[in-house]
Amino acid sequence: xxxxxxxxxxxxVENLNISYKTRKHLLPAVRQVSFSIxxxxxxxxxxxxxxxxxxxxxxxxNFLGTNGRITGGSVKFExxxxxxxxxxxxxxxxxxRIAMVYQDPMAALNPTVRIGxxxxxxxTAHRDITWEAARNxxxxxLDRVHMPDARRxxxxxxxxxxxxxxxxVVIAMAMLNEPALLIMDEPTxxxxxxxxxxxxxxxxxxxxxxxxxxxxxxxxxxxxxxVSDQLCVMYAxxxxxxxxxxxxxxxxxxxxxxxLLSCVPKLGTDxxxxxxxxxxxxxxxxIDRPRDACVFEPRCDFATEQCVSARPGLMEVLPDHVSRxxxxxxxxxxxxxxRPVKIKAIKxxxxxxxxxxxxTLEGLKVYYEQESRSIAGLxxxxxxxxxxxxxxxxxxxxxxxxxxxxxxxxxxxxxLVKGVIGLEQITGGDAEFLSIDIREPVSSRExxxxxxxxxxxxxxxxxxxxxYPVGKQIARPIRRFKTVPKDQVYDEVVRLLRAVRxxxxxxxxxxxxxxxxxxxxxxxxxxxxxxxxxxICDEPVSALDVSVQxxxxxxxxxxxxxxxxxxxxxxxxxxxxxFFSDEVAVMYLGQIMELGPAETIYAPPYHPYTEALLSAVxxxxxxxxxxxxxxxxNVPSALDPPGGCRFHTRCPRRSMLPDRGAVCEKETPxxxxxxxxxxxxxxxxxxxxxxxxxxxxxx
Length: 699
Known about the structure:
Layout: E1 9-21, E2 26-38, E3 42-46, H1 53-60, E4 68-77, E5 80-81, H2 87-93, E6 98-101, H3 115-126, H4 131-144, H5 150-153, H6 163-175, E7 181-185, H7 193-210, E8 213-217, H8 221-227, E9 230-235, E10 238-244, H9 245-250, H10 255-262, H11 305-309, E11 315-318, E12 321-323, H12 328-334, E13 357-370, H13 375-378, E14 385-398, E15 402-406, H14 413-421, E16 428-433, E17 436-437, H15 447-451, E18 453-456, H16 470-481, H17 489-499, H18 516-528, E19 534-538, H19 546-563, E20 566-570, H20 574-580, E21 583-588, E22 591-597, H21 598-601, H22 608-616, E23 625-626, H23 662-666, E24 671-675, E25 678-681, H24 686-690, E26 696-697
Helix pairs in contact: 3-4, 4-6, 6-7, 16-17, 16-18, 17-18, 18-19
C-alpha cells in the first residue's frame, strides 16, 4: 500500500438482515444494511429509538440474545467473515480486536470487583502477560484517558467514581488491547456537556493513535457532527441515507434526515426568531412495517401513491451520497439554506414596561447536615458539617417568562427548584411566590400555593403509577384542587390530553402502553391539571429523541403562549436552553455565576464558566468553528467548597489577573452588572472579558 492509498477497511457490512424469532414467525428488525469502516475513520449512525441502531452493533459481534439471528448478508472484519463463526471464535475477538463501549458504564463494570482487577483481566484473558505487567499497562491506559490519580483509581470500586470517570474506565478497558474496531453505543448520553466534550476529544485522540475504526451510535446530531467522518441515517431498520457527514448535514436528500435536522434548535436561535418542526407520528413497530412500500411514507410530506405501492432502493443523488427515496432530488431542492450560527446581543429598548414578579428568591440556601464518622462524631462531640447544595441564590422571575438553569451535575440546579417547590427544606434566605412566603416544605403549605406551582420531572416512569390509566392520574389533581365541577372532570381530562396532542383515546391507556414522549406529555398534562401559574421542568427532554423533544418543546411554548404560564426550565443542552428561555442562570457549586437575558448570556462578555460550557456544547453543524476550552478536574465537593471564587480551582482564565489570580482564592468575586438584568460573578474586569472572542463562529 502506498502512502496515497486510503487506509484498509476494518469492517465491511453488506446487505445485513437481522430478525427476532417469536412464537409465530421471524420479525425482520434490520433489512439490507450496508456500510464499511476504514482505519482512523468514524462512521456515525443516527435515528430515533427503535430504528435498529443498537441491533446493528450487536449483530456485528453476534450479541443478539437467544431469539435474535442474522438471516442474511455478510459481516467481514479485517477481511474475514464473522457470520457463521462459533461463539468460541467470536470470544477471541470480543474485547481484543473488537471492543464495545455502552451507554451505561455500569452495565460493563462489576460493582463488586475493584477497577484494577477488571482492567487487568481484559489483558490476561487475551494476552500472555503477567498480572503485574497487566496492572502497569492498565495504569498507563488510565493516564492516556486523562484519569486523575490513575494508580489510586485502580484500587477503587465503580461506585466510588463519577459518571465521567466510569466512562473513561470503560473506554480504557476497550482500548487496552489496541482494537482495530471500536463500537460506541450512545457513550455520552448521560454525561455533562463538559465531560462529554472531554470524552469525545479522547475518542478522537485514541482513534488516531491506535489507527482504530469507530462505529459511533447516537441520537444527538451535535455529537455525531463533531466526531463522524461518514454518516448513516437509519429508520425502521433500514439505512435511508448515507454519505459524508458535512454533505448530509448541509444537503439532506431524504425527508427523514431533513426532518431530524428541523427538530434541533441551533445554538444561535431563539423561540422568537425560529421554530422547531417535529416529525409527525412515530417509528412503526417491527410487526407493522410494510415489506413492499416505503416505511417512512406515513410520516412523509413528499409521499405519493408510488411510495405505497413500491419500496425505494438506495439511489446515488450526489457522488458518494445515497438516499432511499423516490423524490431525493426534490428533497435536495426543497431544503432551505442553512443559516450560519450568529450569536449577537439584542439591544434593549430605552424604556421598557417593568415585569410583574411572580417568584422572588433572596439569599436562598439549602444545606444538608453531614453525619460525622469520626469517634468524636459518635459521641456527639464533633462540629456539624453541611453540604452547601444551594448557597446564597438571589433572583426574580417575572410572570409569563421562562428561566433556564444550566450547569454541570452537582451544581445544585435540581436542589434549587426542589427547595422552591417544597420537596427540600430551605435552610436560609427568603423565598416568595405570589407574595406568599414559601420557605416551609410542601407538607406545610396552603393548598392554594401547591395548586399554583407544579413540576415536570425528568423520568415520567418514576412519577406515573403503572397500575392506573393515565386519564385517572390526570383527573386526581383536578378533583383534589376542584379545578372544575365533579361532573366536568372527564371533559377537563380530555381537554388536557388534546392540549398535549394525545387525544381522547389515551384516557384508558396505561403508562406501559405509551412511548417515552407520550408519557412525558402525560406528565405535562398532569402538571397543568391544577392550572398553575408556575411549572418547573427538571430535564424534561434530556432522554427523548430529537423529534419527540421538538414536539414537547413546542407544546410547552404553546401552553405558555395560551395560558401565560411561567416556566423554570433545567437542561444540560445549552442549545435547547438558549432556544427556550427568556433568561438564563448559570450555576456552579451552589451559586449563580452569571444571570441575564438569554441573548446576552450567549454572547461576550462571558463568565469563564459560561465560556467553557459553550465551548463544550455539541453543535449540529460539522463546519462551525468552536473554541477548544476544556475544564480539568471534577466539580469540588459542596461539603468543603473552595474559598474565594468557587470556580477558581478549574478556571481557565485566572492568568488574566495579576499573580495568576491569587485574589480568586481569597476573596468572593463582585457581582458585576454588565447590562440591563445581566450580571457576572467574577474578579476579572469587564473590559478584559469583553476582549475575549466569541466561542462559536460560523464556518
